[in-house]
Amino acid sequence: MEGFGVHTSMWTMSWDKKGAEYAVSQAVRYQMDFLEIALLKPLDVDAEHSQRLLEKNNMRAICSLGLPEGAWLSKNPDTGVEFLKVALEKTAQMGCEALSGVTYGGIGERTGFPPTEMELDNVARALGEAAAYARSLGLLFGIEPVNRYETHLINTGWQSVAMIEKVGAHNMFVHLDTYHMNIEEKGVAQGILDAREHLKYIHLSESDRGTPGAGTCDWDEIFAVLAAIDFKGGLAMESFVNMPPEIAYGLSVWRPVAASADEVMENGLPFLRNKARQYQLL
Amino acid sequence: MEGFGVHTSMWTMSWDKKGAEYAVSQAVRYQMDFLEIALLKPLDVDAEHSQRLLEKNNMRAICSLGLPEGAWLSKNPDTGVEFLKVALEKTAQMGCEALSGVTYGGIGERTGFPPTEMELDNVARALGEAAAYARSLGLLFGIEPVNRYETHLINTGWQSVAMIEKVGAHNMFVHLDTYHMNIEEKGVAQGILDAREHLKYIHLSESDRGTPGAGTCDWDEIFAVLAAIDFKGGLAMESFVNMPPEIAYGLSVWRPVAASADEVMENGLPFLRNKARQYQLL
Amino acid sequence: MEGFGVHTSMWTMSWDKKGAEYAVSQAVRYQMDFLEIALLKPLDVDAEHSQRLLEKNNMRAICSLGLPEGAWLSKNPDTGVEFLKVALEKTAQMGCEALSGVTYGGIGERTGFPPTEMELDNVARALGEAAAYARSLGLLFGIEPVNRYETHLINTGWQSVAMIEKVGAHNMFVHLDTYHMNIEEKGVAQGILDAREHLKYIHLSESDRGTPGAGTCDWDEIFAVLAAIDFKGGLAMESFVNMPPEIAYGLSVWRPVAASADEVMENGLPFLRNKARQYQLL
Amino acid sequence: MEGFGVHTSMWTMSWDKKGAEYAVSQAVRYQMDFLEIALLKPLDVDAEHSQRLLEKNNMRAICSLGLPEGAWLSKNPDTGVEFLKVALEKTAQMGCEALSGVTYGGIGERTGFPPTEMELDNVARALGEAAAYARSLGLLFGIEPVNRYETHLINTGWQSVAMIEKVGAHNMFVHLDTYHMNIEEKGVAQGILDAREHLKYIHLSESDRGTPGAGTCDWDEIFAVLAAIDFKGGLAMESFVNMPPEIAYGLSVWRPVAASADEVMENGLPFLRNKARQYQLL
Description:
CATH topology of chain A: TIM Barrel
Order of helices and strands of chain A: EHEHEHEHEHEHHEHEHH
Largest interface: A-B, 34 and 34 residues
Helix content of chain A: 40-55%
Largest sheet of chain A: 8 strands, parallel, barrel
Distance between the termini of chain A: 13 Å
Strand order of the largest sheet of chain A: 1-2-3-4-5-6-7-8
Low-confidence stretches of chain A: none
Oligomer: homotetramer
Number of strands of chain A: 8
């Protein structure tokens, strides 16, 4: 996990053979260092095909997911661990380096109350089991804090670090996302300051999930602080332009957040790369 | 609606006699020009008491609300209009100048799909009836766009203007909120640019709803653009520090967003007032 | 003066035939709407050649200058007016629309004291004569405030407006520069707020005069406020990468402020154009 | 050198007994951790009086200066070293911890050309002698890069580090200033990134040298990056409100940069302290 990559949602939300081939060809075209593969339905993935496709194109990858409701670690930790184990196996079979994302719960999980001790205990225990399994497969295992509307469990960098320390697994890491940081952190860089050496992956996503550089994120502050903590992990552009309706609900995207995917690639991508280079992160 | 005020949530979420008296005394203490009263349960309000209290303290006020689920205009426009009429009557009886907020629906209303024509038609027709009733009472009537997680109907300044133009009522206005703008607009000031002469009221709320000045909002940009469009409306500080649990769900506030209410008043309030004065908005 | 243009210093500091032809060809290549021609030595310009060159390429232009020491309006107003008249004649002969820049003095003019009444009176009287002459030639006539180190006379937007009001000439306008505003104004947009309807031209120059987008200027704030005041004038990119030594002194550029002119054109130009389009200024 | 202090120019430009007593009393009143004493005329200072005054008030201090023209290290290194030795002796006698500022030259020193090898060699050799003398007195010795108009020698963080490495003295440090960084650095935090472990002192000065928080400096970015590099040095507020005319020339301050010194102390000081606390730098 290093260099500049992109979330596959730029090109497909279906990691079937056709979707995978298109996404990898585009990632090569745009000279990405890696792809982040959305592992929404791990069992449906033809891991062998993905592995060959990635290897043939010399493309590194990581996987990410959110858990389906029956597998939320806070409520159904055992089911959740089983789900994560399958996803980790697929991740390893595909030749990916890590599994990350909302690995602790669902996008949209909210009880209406602050997280309880029992919820956090359930999450920690289950993450510990999943992390051990990930280690046995040679994988890193990340957790991504998301904003208050998408979960009540982990919203900030410091909460992620607290969870990792509670679990105590050395192959776990914090995976931040500028879109969520812009809502949750006291200063967009605070999450980076809090996560520091635990931070190995970051989504570069604009404040409205549209074209990077055309929103309210303070990119100089973000990149300067990444440089200051000597960040060496993966920088992954993410934009949710033109989501399919069935995905839109969880993400609450009700209108096109950019004029087109082209605008994201032609304006947003050079913007982020130039900034990353300016701060010597690439 | 002009000058610098504050949302009553700083001091109470219950506009009963005790809550009202405390909030008004604090508003006087902090030299507020007006109060925004959360009209969560209009029928329970002793309007006569509020009217005397406000008048005695020479304190102006406006009311705001979100609709309960059975009264969402998109689905139950007739019930919604009845609810709004009661709220408007209370607003007038209290001697307030306007009713505003999520007057078109519920905080948390999401169908999982973009707004349909029928939903928007229902909303427009009902808002038109409510606006006419407001006019008969001498009141202004506002709509506040909120972020994608709190509604799927109206998230941005331009959507608010489109709705007001669809309704065609001259006593309607746009009520923006910097917290939501920071998530939804392409540049935090874009909503102000789009709303322009329709903008008569703005919530000054930090990116995490905590202490103004300690988050990610670009306040210079916000105030400079307000000055540039010659904004003359009300500036209302809002912070959701220490919400009661029953309110937290709709707002998805799971942790204290500031160290204390004192921090908001002692750090955030002078910060906002200094900036507003710098740009000659006060 | 409208649309997006560029200062000729990107390509030449010598507006001789060769320099002019190269600059115009490049301006066409980069689809500029206009050129700003540095009229350092008005008498040396072959105006007829320039006029034909510009017309043939359908390229609009304005001229700009700073006065040589013997012609500073504060001290030698009569000589200054003569110099300006020659420059205005050349400007008209070249088919340009305006003369602007530090038309009131020298870049580097500082007495060590705040401007005196006599200095300002001299400047105003001389500017009045020059403005009248400009009007007789059908030209607009601008003044550009520059930072405290480059002049002690006019550093801010409001000082420019005060001078224009003191002169009382209707063909005068304020010409701002983001590089100077970043040093002098209380908030980078304050100069725009103060100049408002007087503002007809703005230099888009980064905080270190290098690649736009790679410095400390808050471009969203700048463009948002330009949009808010309904700015219709000229947007002119300016960068002083690789100045010849004889120019460097006045501008105090002691090191390359960008890696190359290419970096300015390939990174800075798209950055500015994208932002200008985002705020519907193009 | 740690904690939050202030440049004495807030209260006096004359470090005579009266000026010193007033400045120290004010520093105590505002609970400063240290004072930065402008050592404009080292020989005139009654070091014993200062030492007693500081000790009695339990006030730490550092000294700063710029060199008079005859003592510029680039041209007159030997005279410069003599001047610095006197200043260092006074600094030690006063019980101060360090001498810093434009210790390598004059404020306003510009040849009109980039620094030559000979100039830089002279500066390095002289700084080396002064640093050795400082070490013998138990003092730290700093260099402050200033903007292009105030010197042609050292304008940025990386140039300061290059000079310190050229000198090779372990008691030397980089002393940054946000006002200069805002003009010279590629992103206001770049100088901090470049200076890193060499950075032991920073002037917190607004973009126009007026009231901190009311200009164009991006303070969140500055403080976040200071926190990220684990900065432990001194934070010194600086504002040049109401300079005496004889000082104004070097600093090119032609108008009041703030409404009053009170505005700086009542608005700017709490703004900076709140931000420093937010990022746990205090």
